[in-house]
Amino acid sequence: MNREELKRVRIAKRKLAIKRKFRGTSEKPRLVVFRSNKHISVQIVDDTNGVTLMSYSSNSGAIPKGKNKTEISEIVGKQIAEKAIAVNIESVVFDRNGYLYHGRVKSLAESARKSGLKF
Q1: What is the pLDDT of residues 49-90, one digit of tens each?
Q2: How confident is the model over 88-104, as pLDDT tens digits?
Q3: Would the pTM of this model clear 0.85, i.e. be above it?
Q4: Residue 90's closest CA among 44, 55, 50?
Q5: Are the beta carbons of 39 and 59 closer than 8 angstroms?
Q6: CB count, 10 Å around CB of 85?
Q7: Which domains are assigned to the chain?
Q8: DSSP states of the chain as a string?
Q9: Beta strands of the chain (E only): which ranges?
Q10: CA–CA separation, 98 vs 10, rounded Å?
Q11: What is the distance between the alpha carbons of residues 35 and 58, in angstroms, rounded to a whole number?
């Protein structure tokens, strides 16, 4: 197994371990983060019904130009929290999706908390 495959296996194991611990319900759905090299996206998922309740991404046109990726993550966290609170979702389970709680993932989570989302 080369280095790239080993890295993918470790990420997959970490992702499954986190997903096993946290399940989203209709009262307390799961906030899932996905980040790529350029963008970051967030979904709020109800695992009991298997439904994505809402999502937001840095691909949407509402993100201003000239910001770095961490600042964009803060904006995405604020927007998803505002959308969730608008439909009476106040508490979620945070699923970092195997990513380390550092950098963009951390800034997204902190801005969602500041905007009123509890996790």
Answers
A1: 889 999 999 998 778 888 999 999 999 999 999 999 999 999
A2: 999 999 988 878 899 99
A3: no
A4: 44
A5: yes
A6: 13
A7: 3-114 (3.30.420.100)
A8: --HHHHHHHHHHHHHHHHHHH----SSS-EEEEEE-SS-EEEEEEETTTTEEEEEEETTSTTSPSS--HHHHHHHHHHHHHHHHHHTT--B-EEE-TT--SSTHHHHHHHHHHHTT-B-
A9: 30-35, 40-46, 51-57, 93-95
A10: 9
A11: 10
22 CA to centre of own chain: 13
Residue with tokens 């380390």: 100
Residues 6+ apart with CB under 8 A from 38: 58, 69
Task: Provide the CB-side half-sphere exposure for 38 (13 A, CA).
Answer: 3
Locate 32 and state its tokens. 């899932």
Q: What gap in Å lies between CA 26 and CA 110, rounded to an integer?
A: 23
User: Which class for 61: exposed (0-12), middle (13-18), buried (19 or more C-beta within 10 A)?
Assistant: exposed
